[in-house]
Amino acid sequence: MANRILIVDDAAFMRMMIRDILTKNGFEVVGEAQDGGQAIEKFKELHPDLITMDITMPEMDGIAALKEIKKLDPNAKVIMCSAMGQQAMVIDAIQAGAKDFIVKPFQSDRVIEAINKTLGL
Predict the structure, then answer these.
(1) pLDDT tens string 75-107
(2) Are strands 100-103 and 50-54 parallel, antiparallel or unpaired?
(3) What are the backbone dihedrals phi and psi of residue 17, each rounded to the nearest 5 degrees, phi first?
């Protein structure tokens, strides 16, 4: 059975890029969210195997959403996505429980490597 992934990013084209990389590599994208609040709702509804989470989003940022998701499920697997130059935020995210991070612009092999490593594939 394909691993079920939730994509969270406020930019539609970024979600599309990740969805494209994931589906080409045999993963199932079960949902998408465009901010942290939506991410938490979708997580509760869909119970994905993994979440890719943008850090910088309106309403609720990725780190706040990560902390809430970790309260709901301490075993949730979340990979943070950040633009270059957000190292301090990446460190915050890892301390908050993120398993890994990928840097934008996305490189297909790095995305798949991070996901496979996080899922233990």
Answers:
(1) 999 999 988 666 788 889 999 999 999 988 889
(2) unpaired
(3) -60, -45
